[in-house]
Amino acid sequence: MPSSPTLLQRLETHAPDWFDLAERINAAVLGMRIAGKPVNFGALPCAYVPLDLDTFAMDNSGTAKEHVGHNYAGAARK
After folding, report:
1. Is residue 3 packed enough to be buried (19+ CB in 10 Å), middle (13-18) or exposed (0-12)?
2. pLDDT of 18 over the 70 cut
3. Minimal CA–CA distance to 29: which of 44, 49, 52, 15?
């Protein structure tokens, strides 16, 4: 496992490629068709598509970050 600075450097080096990949995947998924008809992704009347994301809270209580709030568990978050 690389050190955190090395890992960050590697992630930043490849980030543009991942943005391009994400854009191509998004276009492919949104352009999908079943039996010749576009897939209904369940758009709401306002044209938004519901999206379910899983997140996690990081405990930044030992840092001096600006504009830090607290999450429901009481841990500081950025």
Report:
1. exposed
2. yes
3. 49
